[in-house]
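quick one before i forget lol
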Amino acid sequence: MRKKITSVALAILFSLSMASVSLAGKAKGTIESVEEGKIVITIDGKSDLKAGDAVVVKTKKKAIEGC
């Protein structure tokens, strides 16, 4: 009985931890200006981001043209 309770508790904890990861939002936009230590990005459409939120910026890879 104790093993069943422990396994169910671990499964619930794992599910909750994965649910918090899925709360991350996505937004697309363009960079308006780059200054020393500061980047201004204009976001297309609505976003749940607020001033002071920590973000990770991923850029699109540009294709290299040539032979």
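fyi The chain has a mean pLDDT of 78.
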